Amino acid sequence: MGSWDELCILCGASPEGGPHDLLHSGDIDEYARQLADEIDPYNDDLFDTIRNALKCSIPQKTLLSRAEWLPDGMAHPQYCSDVCVALGYFGKEEGTVPRDRDGIPDGRNVQVRRVIDSSSGDFERVLQETVVGNENVSADGGSAEEDEVLGEESFVASGRKLDLYSMCAVAHESPNIWLHERCYQYMQSWIDWQSLPRPTALSSSEEELSFAGELYEIANSRKQTRDRDTTLLPCIDYDGIEATLEQWQDHFAPARRGTKYLARALHEGLQGKDLIPALLKDFRAWMFMRPDVWPKPLEAIDTTATTVFTTFPINSISAIPLIDTLPNELLLLILRELPLPSLLALSSTCRSLRALITEPSFMDCVLKEAILRGSLKWILPVSSFKNEVQGCCTSLRLWLSVVSGSCQSDGDLIDSNVNALLVSPQFPRLTFVRACWESDSMMNRKRLWGLVKQFEAVWGSYRLHGWEVDRFYPSAEILDTLQIVE
Length: 486
Ligand SMILES: [Zn+2]
Description:
This protein is α+β, with helices and mostly antiparallel strands.
């Protein structure tokens, strides 16, 4: 079948970041019929209108040209850098795992490579290999912050590109796995290592596995290993993104859910390429938006809303009204863990909760706690990514400057870090969080956070119970056959 795409085990996008077209030109009639029938099977004009819109989405020039309707931040080269992280065993013969006996090597000596130039689940060039065992994330004392620093240090680019294969293709039954470099970092940073049990002794060796070693064993010790069709892990719910992998991950359309946005746009009288944004929404293209663009304030920020925040400053947690018998501190601890939609749903359950939760200063307090320590923690940048920290800071300063004006000088703003900006009494938290909800980038970030939390749960089960299926032999037996990049 020539070449094909395989998907990142965390985000479910191909190395290049996924689709760049709505659909294949040969499928236009079929999709137009489906969409028209779902919206209104009795309206004969609908089919033509939708077919026209779909036709407008096909790039006119060459295969390689980027469609002009493709939003910034989607598809190659905007979704991510070209660099991926491959982990597993790369033998001297063409970078494959040595197969001189049954089973696969265990995770104890896993190699970790920064790789580029993907090709059907494999990678053709190596930028750098980390020293084996350099990034141990063992439970004894290693805090999340320290792990991030280790991750960063172990990936200082050497600048050299070596023409070496790193085989990871699921289609070739390789146990090696790969992730976008950003996804690798998110997983390292966002898993709550303190909350996980200590690893069980899986082998006679006393030494604990590295982060990469554990991830490799988790992916390969499940009863259901990676799916040959989707190339993803069946124990993780990827929310349908895998449907976009046909032979290649070229088209948004297979991820579609419903026709809500298209129906609305048609109702408004939109036609042709003006319907494409609505189609992108129904096709859930936001799952392929780069997850590190923090929203900027619109110029016309609602000043009355921001006045609410500044006129009701929070003095202390004890200022929160009591509800039933729950102490305030406990209530706040609970509410900060609630996903935002659940919090709003909760506020509609009774009058006293309604009054409490929608009270601006209380809501502000919950949001602050949720961002720093609770369900909205994904809004924070990953500290090992300097670009993320800078990008987030820039966005937060814009929000603060829109509302604060004379409250803080520019000098104060420039010196403030992310947390200081976020907890600033003037910061328009509610408006900012609402803007995050309207941002494709932030919603994809939230999706990735959710995926990491799923991995965290699987990780916990692996640490408690070990392998679901033992497919391993001691990797020490093959050390001399490996190709280690110096
Ligand atoms: Zn990824």
